[in-house]
Amino acid sequence: MAENNKARLQAQGLKDLIRKQPITIVEDAFEEQTGAPKKKKKVPPNSLFQECECIGNNSKAVEKNPQSENEAMFQAEKNSKTGNKKTVEDDTMDQDDASSNKEGEDTSGLSIESNKKGMSIDMYFKVHGINFEDEEDEEDEEDAANIEGGGGQASNEGTKKKTRGKTLCKNIHATDFNDRREVEFLQGQPIGPTKEVVANLGQFLGSTIINPRFVTLLYTSWHGVPDNIKEGMWEYANVMRGFCRAWKKYKGEIKKEHFLKYNTKKEMIKNRPLESPEFQFRKLIRYWSLPAIKNELQSRIEAGENHEDAFVAVLGKDQPGRVRCYGTSITRRSLRKDEEIRQVKVEYNDKITYKNVTRLCHTKSIVTVNAQFPGPRIVAREGDHILIKVINNVQNNISIHWHGIRQLQTGWADGPAYVTQCPIQTGQSYVYNYTITGQRGTLFWHAHISWLRSTLYGPLIILPKKGARYPFAKPHKEVPIIFGEWWNADPEAVISQALQSGGGPNVSDAYTMNGLPGPLYNCSAKDTFKLKVKARKIYLLRLINAALNDQLFFSIANHTLTVVEVDAVYVKPFSTNTILIAPGQTTNVLLKTKSHYPNATFLMMARPYATGLGTFDNSTVAGVLEYKTPPNTHRSNSTVSLKNLPLLKPVLPALSDTSFATKFTNKLRSLASAEFPANVPKKVDRHFFFTVGLGTNPCEKNQTCQGPNGTKFSASVNNVSFALPDTALLQSYFFRQSNGVYTADFPTSPLNPFNYTGAPPNNTIVNSGTKMVVIPYNTSVEVVMQDTSILGAENHPLHLHGFNFFVVGQGFGNFDPKIDPANFNLLDPVERNTVGVPSGGWVAIRFLADNPGVWFMHCHLEVHTSWGLRMAWVVLDGKLTNQKLLPPPFDLPKC
Prior knowledge:
By secondary structure, the chain is α+β, with helices and mostly antiparallel strands. The strands form 8 sheets. It has a 6-stranded mixed sheet with strand order 12-11-14-19-16-17, with no helix packed on it. Strands 13, 15, 18, 20, 21 and 22 form a 6-stranded mixed sheet that branches. It has a 6-stranded mixed sheet with strand order 24-23-28-33-30-31. Helix 15 runs antiparallel to helix 16 (307-315).
C-alpha cells in the first residue's frame, strides 16, 4: 500500500506536464496508398497474446497472460482506491486520485521535481513515453525468426524477463477526468475513444484512416479489454503481428528508396512517392533524422529553453506523444472486416501461381491467386482507393478484370486482355489502380484472357460508406457463395482444341459452390460446402455466378429467399423460392432462418438453365444448410441426431424453363428512392440495334472442321465476329495509333435485316474484324439487343464494361421500334452490368456514356466470347479535367 501511495505521489507532480502532451500517433506512420498496413515500429515476438505498444516512437512487443494480468490490474486499481466506492463510470471522481500513476507508467525512479527546467532530455523522454531508437539498431533477423514461429503461447524466457515489467496500461479505465471525457462507455465498460477523438485522430493521420474501428485498434491496448469482451475477439495477436510486420517492411523499403538516396530534406520531399502527401512525408523525414533531432533538443534544453518550446521548435506542434490505452469492444467480425478493408485501401500483392488441387478424385495443377481456389476475397468500402499488384509467376499470360467496377477515368485498370491492356507476361507485374465511386454491393474479379477464369476468380465485396446502412434488415452474418465449374481436363486445352477443330468444346465435369462440387457427384462427398446457421436469424447470401458457360437456377430446400440486390445495385425486395443467375451476374438475397431448430438439414442446389442446341453440363452442385444444435442439447446426442436428420432437397425449375426465367427477371426493379434514385436517361441521343447470336466461318483448306456442315462455329454482333488485335485497343486509341489496329465503323444496325427469330437464313457465314463504335462524352445511349435463331435461339448474358445500364424493356420475337418503346419502363427499371438477352427475344438498355475510354461488351458465356460475340465502345474525352481519361500508368504491360 505504501509503495502504491509513493508511486501516486511521485506521478502526481508530473500531472500537468504530461497532460500538455496531445493525443497523437508518432511520425504519422500512414502514407496513403503506398503499400502494406502500417502500425508501429517493432515487430512483436512469438506469443499468442502480444501487441505493438503505441508509445511514442517505440513499439515494443510485450508478452502477457491476459487473464492474470487483468486480475492483477483490477486488484491494483481496487487497492489504489483505498476503500473509495466510486466506479469507473463516475465522471465526478476525485481528480487527485485520478491522476495517480497515469497510464500505468513505472514512476518509482522519478522525483516530484522532475518536471522542472533542469530535467535531462532522457528523463523527459521517459516521462513522456518517447523512445528515439533508430530502426536500424533493431535485430531484423531475430524479429523474422519470431514472426515465422509466432502464434503459440510459448516464447523465449529471456523475452519474458526483459518485457514483463513494461506493461504500460495498468490504469486501464482512463482515471484522469479529462481523459475520461475522451472515452466512450458501454454498460460501465470503456469501449474506446469517442467519435470526436477518432475523427480528430483520423484527421491527423490523413485520409488513409477512414475506418474508426481501425483507429480504435491503434488507440487501444489488449490489457484494457474486460474478460467477457476478450472472449469474443478474433486472434488479436495475429492481427497486431500482421500490422507490425507489414509496417516495418514498408518503412524499410521507403527508407531505402527515398531517404538513403538524398542528402537534404528538400531533395527528399521533391523525390517522395507521388502518392505520399507532403505533410506526412515531412513527418517521416523527422522520424528518420532522430539522432540529429535528439541532439538539437538536448542543445536547446541545456541552453535554458523550455521543454515544450524546444519540442515545438524542432518537431512542430504535432510532436510525438503517447497513445492512451482504453478497453475496446472490437468483435471478431469487425476485426476481420477491418483487416481486409485496411489491406484493400493500401495494397494487395496477388501472386499468380500453380497449385495442385483435387476434385472428383482427380488431382491437377491449376492457375491460382496466392495458391487459393477460389481466389481471395477482396473487401472494400464505397469511396476506397484500390491498389492491387498482380505478379505473374506462371507460364500463361495473365490479366484480371474487376467485374462491375465502373473504372471512372481509370480504364487502364479494367483488365480485358488486348482491350484495355496487354496481358501481364511471365515474370512481370502490374498494379491495378482505381477508386470505387458510387458503388456498393457484391461484385467479383476474374481473369480476362482465354479460359483462365475457370480457376482465377474470387469475390469483390464493397461495403457501404461508414455510417451508411443497408436499405433492408441488418443481417446477422454475410456469406459469399460463388459458383464455378470444374474440369478434370485443362480448360485451356479444351478451348484451344475447339477453336482449332471448329466444333463445340467439351463441357465441364462438375459445377462448384465455393470451389466444392458437393455430394451429388462421385468421389465428392467430402468436398461439400456447408453453411451453418442459427435459428431466428437473417443471413445475407452474396451469390456470384463465376461459371464459364452456364446460367444457373439456385434454391434452398424449405426456405424462402428475399432478393435485395443485383450486380451491386439495390432492388425492391421480393421473395422467391428460386433465383436465376447468369455468368457475370451477382445477386444478394436475405435468408431468414426458421424460428426453431428444425430437426432436419437442407440441400442448397444449383443446376443449369439451358436454352441452346449445344451440349452442356447437365449436373447439379449441392451444399448443405445445417442448423446449429441448440445450446441445451447434450453434445453426444446432438452428434448422433445430426447424422440421422433427414436431408431435404429443393425443387428446381426444368432445365429450359424460360417461363420461370422471364417471370423472375420481370420482378427486378430499382429502388428508385431519394437515396438510391434510378437516373434513367429519358432523352436518347444515339439509338443502336444489335443482333447477337451464332454463325459460322469457312473451314480452311486441307482441314476437316467439326462445326455445322463442315464449317467452324463462330458468333457475332451485327454479323461482325470481333477479332482481338495484337496490341491493346485503349493504348492505340490514347496515343492515336489506331491505323492497322481497329476501325471506327462498327455497324449501328444489321447491314442485311432478316426475320431474326423466324426461319434462319441459308447463309450463316459471319464477317470478322476489329470494329468499334465511337461516341462523344455524355451521350445518352439506347441499345436494343436482338437474339437470332441462326444455329438455334439462345439466351445470351451480355456484359458491358465501364458502365451500369438500365434494362428498360424486354420481350419475345422481333423487336418492333414502333410499338415496343411505348411499353418501356422509365420509372424504376433494374440497373445492372450484365443482362440476359431472352432466348428468341430482345432486351433494351439505356446508359449515359460518362466514362471516357475503350469499353468491352461481350457475351459472358465464355465459349461465345471465344467465337467472337463481342465488340467495343470508344467514349471520347469530355471538356473538363474529370471527364478525361487519365494517362497510362508507368508499369502498363507491353505486348
